[in-house]
Amino acid sequence: MRGYNGIIMGDQVELDLSDYGQGKKVVAKKYFNPNLAPVPKETKNWNWFNFTTVWAGMVHNVVQFEIAGLLTFEFGPVIALVVTALAYGTELIAMYLNGHLGAKWGLPFPTSVRPSYGIIGSYIPVMLRAFSALFFFSVQTYVGATLINSMLTLLYPPWSSFNLVLAGIPANLAICFAVFWVINVLVMFKGMEEVKRFELVMGPAILVSFLVLFGYGISLAHGLGPLFAPMSPEIPATPYDLALATASLAGAYSTLVLNVMDFTRFARKQKDQVIGQAIGFPLLFVAFSFLAIGTVSATISFFHVPASQAVTYVNPVNIMFLFSKNVLISMALGATLVGATVGVNVAANLVSPVYDVIALVPRLSWKAAAIAASAIGVLFAPWLWYNSATSILGILNLLGATLGSVAGVMMADYWIVRRRLIDLAGAFEYKGPYWYFMGVNPKALLATALGSLIPILGYLSGTTILYDFGWYFSLAVGGASYVALSLTKR
Question: pTM (2 decimals)?
Answer without folding.
Answer: 0.86
